[in-house]
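tool=predict chain=A
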Amino acid sequence: MCFYSKQQSCFCYLFQLNSYMRAFEYVYVVCDEGKLDDVLLSIPECVGVYSYFDSSRTLNFKLRRKAKRSDFLDETLQRSVFPSALKTAKDVNAAFKESVRKKYSKSWDFLQTNMGHISMLDYQASFKLCRCF
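tool=predict ok
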């Protein structure tokens, strides 16, 4: 998932999005409601979009466009992320997804377990924190 903030430059965001489309089958962008039109005009049709808006100190998310499978998957890029795990894989994409799942499972479990105690701005910090455990 790629977040597009009010302050982020378009070039940085598009470069990141291009990399995600080469590594992952389905890619979503999350953007502020005020940037929705700009984002929809600047991204490929295969990229899904969620928008968010702040309401009474709560972030609300809305699916704006469902992602379609990327036609840009790059096995060489996927292998470079987890070289030892994917060295002999016959189905590189399946092995890549399993490697990502294993790498981030503790972070995801931590986030789900502590969701009620973490404010929205703390999500990224929470992922960094739980890598230490």
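The CA atoms of residues 61 and 77 lie 31 Å apart. The chain has six helices and four strands.
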